[in-house]
Amino acid sequence: MDQIVNSIITTLSAHNVSPQIITLIISMIPLLELRGSILVAGAALQLPFIQTYITAVIGNMLPIPFILLFIEKIFKLMKKVPYIEKFPHWCERKAMSKADQIKKYGYFGLYLFVAIPLPGTGAWTGSLLAVLLGLKRGKSLLFILLGVMTAGLVMSLISYGVLQNLIDLFR
Predict the structure, then answer these.
(1) 3-state SS of the chain: helix, strand, coil percent to 5?
(2) Contact call for residues 60 and 34 (beta carbons, < 8 A)
(3) Is residue 16 very low, low, confident or very high in pLDDT (cuts 50, 70, 90)?
(4) How far is residue 88's CA from residue 72's CA, in Å, rounded to a whole number?
(5) What is the mean pLDDT of the segment spanning 12-17?
(6) Is the pLDDT of residue 115 over 90?
(7) Where are the domains of the chain?
(8) Better-scored residue on pLDDT, 3 or 72
(9) What pTM does this model have?
């Protein structure tokens, strides 16, 4: 992952792409998403806290409406194409293996799934799960947005040392 991120930063920086746009792009990439972009923006790109947070949230949310609206059709087409027909099945199995929380708590479970910054959770997987579980797209979008905003706040507080400063303050 580090090599991918470093390659993205190096390539885009060489073409004079601003740190904000680099952050936006990284936050749209599956697996990296908001969590990765905030770490990169703070440490490597030296962006200010608020600018990083807003850029990462916007970038992470940009693909989500498209996933909610079109992933079923895209996967249906992919399942008919030799050599890639297994990929959508794998994505669906992987996502559904994490569906218990959402099945149990509904939209609040979807929020928690996206909000808690753990590997394998996030807006992309949350969107796929919302579709696979037949949740309403508009309502899912709202809860995914709230989850992304929460995850962004948590990651920003950690990345920028705010959380550590608060802990040190009460020692």
Answers:
(1) 75, 0, 25
(2) yes
(3) very high
(4) 10
(5) 90
(6) yes
(7) 2-61, 64-156
(8) 72
(9) 0.90
- 70: pLDDT strictly greater than 90: yes
CA-to-CA separations, 102 to 73, 115, 125, in angstroms, rounded: 23, 13, 12
Question: How many angstroms from the chain centroid is the CA of residue 91?
Answer: 15
pLDDT of residue 58: 97
pLDDT band for position 166 (cuts 50, 70, 90): confident
In this structure, the dihedral spanned by the alpha carbons of residues 89, 90, 92 and 93, taken in order and rounded to 10 degrees, is: 110
Task: State the burial class of residue 124 (Cβ atoms within 10 Å of its Cβ: 0-12, 13-18, 19+).
Answer: buried
Cα torsion angle, 149, 146, 124, 115, sign: positive
- Annotate 58-121 with DSSP letters as a single string: HHHHTTHHHHHHHHHHHHHHHTTSTTTTHHHHHHHHHHHTT-HHHHHHTHHHHHHHHHS--TT-
CA–CA gap between residue 147 and residue 70 (Å, rounded): 21
Q: What is the DSSP letter of 162?
A: H
Nearest-angstrom CA–CA distance, 99 and 120? 12
